[in-house]
Amino acid sequence: MNAVEIEEAISQLAEQPFDAVEFPYDFLLAFGNKETTLKRLRSGTSNKSDLDGVLQANNIHLKSCAAGNVSETLAALKSSPATTKAKAKFILATDGQTLEAEDLTNGDTIACDFKDFPDHFGFFLPLAGISTVKQIRESSFDIKATGRLNRLYVELLKTNPDWGTAERRHDMNHFMARLIFLFFAEDTSILNGEDLFTATVTQMSDKDSSNTHEVISELFRAMNTKIEDRATANLPRWADTFPYVNGGLFSGSTEAPKFSKIARSYLLHIGSLDWTKINPDIFGSMIQAVADDEERGALGMHYTSVPNILKVLNPLFLDDLNAQLDAAGDNKRKLDNLRKRMSKIRVFDPACGSGNFLVIAYKEMRAIEAKINAYCGEPDRRSEIPLTNFRGIELRDFPAEIARLALIIAEYQCDVTYRGHKDALAAFLPLDAENWITQGNALRLDWLTVCPPTSQKVDMRGEDLFMSPLEKAQIDFKNEGGETYICGNPPYVGATTKAPKGASRETKERLKKEDARRKEDMRRIFEGRSRTWKSLDYVSGWFMKAADFGQISRSAAAFVTTNSVCQGQQVPILWPLISQTGHEISFAHTSFVWSNLASNNAGVTVAIVGIEMQPTAEKRLYSIGDDGSTSTKSVENINAYLVPYKDVIVQKSNRPLSELTTMVKGSAPTDGGNLLLKRSEVEQLALGPTLQNAVRRFMGSEDSINGGERYCLWLRDKSLDELLAYDALHDRLEAVRLMRLESSKEQTKKFSETPHLFVETRQTGREQPIVIPRHSSERRRYLPCAIGTPGSIVADSAAALLDAPLWNVAVLSSRLHLVWIATVCGKIKTDYRYSNTLGWNTFPVPKLTEKNKEDLTRCAEDILLAREAHFPATIADLYKPDAMPENLRAAHERNDEVLERIYIGRRFRNDTERLEKLFELYTKMTTKVAV
């Protein structure tokens, strides 16, 4: 279940007569528990409560109680030994009149009337495996409204299927935008009377819904008719009460879709909600899914938290504005200059979605302006920050409309907060007809037409507020000559998108078309600049367009980005192109998890990168420490790997720069599977005494991590004629020969003459290998490696150190090495991509003394012994982030301590500091090699 579905279920539960016996089970059902789970709880099989309540292990202990005993019951639940033993996260008590609960993980509590507990449903979302942010927990309205609107939308499409076609989808989305505005307007006195829209539809439309669409259409027509034109407009008296709104919101067709009785009921139910509680920066993100068939299943899951947005906006320009405010003190001249400066700032989000970044930027700037006005003794002064200075581009139709609507609502709410309700109302209607959000493809539009250079006049205007032309959205900027800040959160898409397993043919076709469109977007930007641009993530297009924009119009830009654009093979492709435009990295936030409201969602790992031509302010690097805290460091330079060091690009090396043992790739059989064996096949294979050593353990990435057991035929010391004499081998070798003959590669065809040999052989078969998977999960704190038995053959899905001193394992297993690999090798999807030439050979290790090697050898032994103590647990089992055995974790900590002291005499504070030292050493070592 998603958050919207849970809210609906909880609301229905609160509306039912209270049943003390059934309530605990109904409550758990509302949060997605299956009937089979509830059956076990009812029977007592899994119910461990010692208070005659319901206790679900690792989840919640709840109890219905006698009237007036709620607080006492909650205290008893908290002190219950069963609660502690079952590791319950929540406790809840209710008597059907009041309800109290506590989150035992953080101590947060709620106490409310029973009928109001759905308003706190966000408090309990972890029960459904949904991680939340504070804003969601504190405001259930936005999710409630989203759910109601979604049901209305779906119901209307059932009655009006033509409105769901490509030709009419815009009409449907525009209709929904009008409704959202009206629901907000009637609850905030913007309309002439409280609940005017809902009340009018209730009174004037028939209960059988037959004329509901006609009533709504007339209301739309009224709000598109100026007061001076009303006399000749022939409006019904009940519609004439509505004010003139226009601004493009009600211009054009006033047609409304037909309503069923259910749809009419939904509409009136939505109107009964308290829309004064709307939070535009939350609501916009969720409502955009209403009109998106692909996203509706994850309804309400796309909210980006305000703190995360401020990680972009604060260092981009808000920190500077606040610093200027502090510096101005009570100096009215300085305060007035700052106010004028802010009135000229334009914020441009070329991937704006439903407007989160723009709304937050506007609200933050209004808060600063309000302080200025207060310091100057002008608290009621009208804002000089125009909405038209907040520009956006959005590919999809509905989010673009919601972005405009969210900004309008934000402006009104700010006016109410800072100027009062009366002045806010006086300034609100009619809406301006200016258009400042463009629907279109941001990577194909000319950003200079959407957000024109500050030194040029632009005369062209959009047709109106809600009907933007596809290619242009130019309107005059107010207060010419200001600063431009480009920001946003472009799509998280790699170089290529593949359909998930089990996807339908329609989904595969859709993804194929989207992938082709994105490739064309990137080609238009990068062709002629780079021959290897196809390896770049999609977000690279936004960085390149921002850099091009900055060459024409002075600006600063910052994007949330897949962190892979600052790692591995993408660094030498993208960042030299950015540098050629004169742009530098002005600030950055190193990798962190950008999580959203999603069930069992660990979030995506991202970075934030700001670029500017010759930045005047000090460069700042933000990073997450080992203890989870964020640190800020003022630095002279931030390179493309987001390291506070001079610009350097790590190049592949054929041999280690230090004393490390040379690492080789694994051996590739290229055999169609005919030289590989399962254990059962080994036991069935009848080979003579002369071939006793022909069957070897075969170890690749999967085998070393998950404990797989495979074998291979290792026949390099035997002649083909001799081997073909064995019946057990003849058919296998013939199959290898035929497979290789059919290959399109000449090298593979050549090896058809020796079908008993691997096509790529990189070991003799006598060594003891240390196996390093080429791909491994980013969730592990350490890179996996396994020790093979002597004579084991390493597959080409892994790399190997052959007969290497054990201290190499200490280096491989260190946090230092992991952050180096993650940075210079990059990732494939979310997995670390290991490279011997780019990651291992380039890894800088200081000159080691014999004592250093002894200490590291002992650390490696301790790690291996700690693993052995948990036999037969696999590496996958042992290195789960939340279930790593304590003795193994301690062994790794000791290893990190010993190794890091060799580098700087103490532990590093965080990964940024680790990388800074590694790049310093790398530069010294490569300079020596070059000499």
Written description of the protein model:
- By secondary structure, this protein is of the alpha/beta class.
- Helix content is 42%, strand content 13%.
- It has a nine-stranded mixed β-sheet, sandwiched between helices.
- Strand 4 and strand 5 form a beta hairpin.
- Helix 13 runs antiparallel to helix 17.
Topology (elements, then pairings):
Elements: H1 3-15, H2 23-30, H3 35-43, E1 54-56, E2 60-64, H4 70-79, H5 81-85, E3 90-94, E4 98-103, E5 109-113, H6 134-138, H7 141-159, H8 169-187, H9 196-204, H10 212-223, H11 237-240, H12 261-271, H13 280-287, H14 306-328, H15 332-344, E6 346-349, H16 356-375, E7 390-394, H17 397-419, H18 421-428, E8 437-439, H19 447-450, E9 484-488, H20 505-526, H21 540-552, E10 555-562, H22 571-580, E11 583-594, E12 604-613, E13 619-624, E14 630-635, E15 663-665, E16 676-677, H23 679-684, E17 695-699, H24 701-706, E18 710-713, H25 720-724, H26 727-741, H27 746-750, E19 769-773, E20 775-777, E21 786-787, E22 793-794, E23 798-802, H28 807-812, H29 815-824, E24 827-828, E25 831-833, H30 836-840, H31 850-868, H32 875-878, H33 886-904, H34 911-930
Helix pairs in contact: 1-2, 1-7, 7-12, 7-13, 8-17, 9-10, 13-16, 13-17, 14-15, 14-16, 15-16, 16-17, 17-18, 20-21, 29-34, 31-33
